[in-house]
Every structure is written in structure tokens, then in C-alpha cells.
Amino acid sequence: MIDVRFPTALQIMLSLALAQAESVELLSSAQLAEGVDSSPTFVRRLLAPLIQAGLVRSTMGRDGGVSLSVHASAITLGEIYKATMGEKRLWTGRSDIPHRCLVSCNVERFFANLADEVDESVGRLLGARTLAEALSELRTIDAERI
Amino acid sequence: MIDVRFPTALQIMLSLALAQAESVELLSSAQLAEGVDSSPTFVRRLLAPLIQAGLVRSTMGRDGGVSLSVHASAITLGEIYKATMGEKRLWTGRSDIPHRCLVSCNVERFFANLADEVDESVGRLLGARTLAEALSELRTIDAERI
DNA sequence: CGATATGCAATAATGATAGACACATATTTT
DNA sequence: AAAATATGTGTCTATCATTATTGCATATCG
């Protein structure tokens, strides 16, 4: 099954950013789930690491829900990515390749280095964008739809 | 199951580059499969688009096999990636999200744009490296293993 | 105390990827 | 010409990471 955690977490964060901009106090996981066309449980699972990372604040009990814990302009897409994907790398090579020649003995490390560079590259790209900018881009895209 | 096509194709290409450097004429899919610890069928399926892209030359029939069709210094890792992964993007968003608000109406396009930027970033990184340089790095790593 | 939210664990369903096998086709050797 | 052995490809099955579902404990408001 294809991994949709980051796109989904991003949409959730954008929804929370919109709520923040419109001074809506809290959104419930059920409301967010409706927006991302998924289940409240899945949404809460995605929220857990975002809360852990201090990007989102949750209120338990009746009338509870979640909201951004800081302003959207203080959150980068890189933080969202790192929180939701954890240690999982963008690329993972094969492991336990039998060591038989120059290539098979060293590709594993070579590929890991390459994957590191890719991760850093993507990290820089996402780290340079804030959630507030992303919401603004969303508005631009919306306007261009005519 | 995790997608190992690119790391595997890369290892295959590195093996072919090593063969080229050592003046070995051809490698069979069975020999390559042993090196990557996989099946000849899988290797041939990975080779197909590389042949299609003109990076690899194959000889059919008994004593057949494959070899690089040009020198390893004329092949970039970007070409290998593009050939083996085709149109598949590094990131794919959800599709068919119900359109209910500013966010749900436009995230799809927003995410596609972001994925495009990531692809370009990775493409630049891989496009700047040749297979010959990669083989050289493999030798460096091998030497550092002491 | 009832209603309703989050938090979390366990289990089932889904679906992309790799493996296995069959067989047509191409080429060399005998 | 036939045998041996390689590539090329289609189909079916197995694997397994991800997502969905369910159940229940916990927290908070009215």
C-alpha cells in the first residue's frame, strides 16, 4: 500500500493553519478525518508525533480537539515531515547483500551515503518553507482555478 | 513490500561498470542475480528499461548477456534512476480527496507542485554524478574498510 | 452521571512489490 | 539439424508495509 502519511499530515496541518487564521479554536479528529477522507483513528495516529514534537496541542474530553501550538509562520514543512516520518528515510537500500565482490561488499554503504544526501537535500527544501507560506500558496492556487 | 528497484538497478549498473573496467565482455542475468541476491527474472525486468534507454546493450542466445553500451563516465545516476523508475514520482499524494474547503480543494495540486520540486532536486543531485565516479567511490569505501 | 472527545492496542483488510514458473525466441556449439 | 543456453515476457502467487476497523480506557464539559 502506498504511504500517504506525509501528504495527509500536511493536509491536516494546513487545515489547522486555516482554522488558526480564521480564529477557530479547535478541530476534532472527526472533522479533520472528514477533510482528508479518512478515519479519526488514522488522523489521531498522525497527530500523535506532531503533538510530541510540540507543533500541535490537543485538548482531551468533551468539546476537545486539536490546534496549532504556535503560529503557522513558525512551523516549517521540514518539521512536519520529520515528525511524521520519524527515522524512515526517503530511500532504503537492500540489506544483507552477500559479500562477493567489490560491488556487493560496498554498495550498501555507498547507497546509504547517497540516501543521506537525498534526505539532506529534501530536508533543506522543506525546511525553507513555512506552513503559513504554504497556506498562502493554497490561496493562490485557489484563485488561479478561476 | 519496500521498493528496491533503484538500489538494485544501481548495483547492477555498478557491476557492469566494474566488468567494463576489467574488460569483461558480458555478464549474464544469472551472474548479476547472484550478485544482487535475487532472481534472473527480476534482473532482466530491471534491465529492460535500461536497455530501452540505451544505457545497456544485450546479446541474446547462448553465451549472451549484457554490458554497458557506453563508457561508465558517460552515464549519470540520474539517467539510471529515470530509466528504472519511469514516471513514478518520489512522492505521490492522495487523489480523489473530496472538495469541501480551501484546503481540500487545493492540497492535491499544492502537493503535486511540492513533489515536482523534490523530484527536480533529487534529479539534479543524481544528474551530477556519473557511474564511473560512483565506482571510484566504491573503491574508496572499500579501502576505508581497512 | 451522561455525552463525547482523545489515546492507544489489537486485529483485519488492502495493495504494491518481488518471486516463481512457463514458454517463446535467439544464438552458439556440436 | 539438434542440443544447449541465453534473453524477453506473461501470469500467478507470496510477501509485507500501510491503512482501516474495532474496542476500550481516560479525560472533560454540562
UniProtKB/TrEMBL annotation, chains A, B:
Designated name of the protein: Rrf2 family transcriptional regulator
PROSITE patterns named in the record: HTH_RRF2_1, HTH_RRF2_2
One GO molecular-function entry: DNA-binding transcription factor activity
Protein source organism: Acidisoma cellulosilyticum
Pfam families: Rrf2
SUPFAM superfamilies in the cross-refs: Winged helix' DNA-binding domain
GO CC, alphabetical: cytosol
Coiled-coil spans in chain: none
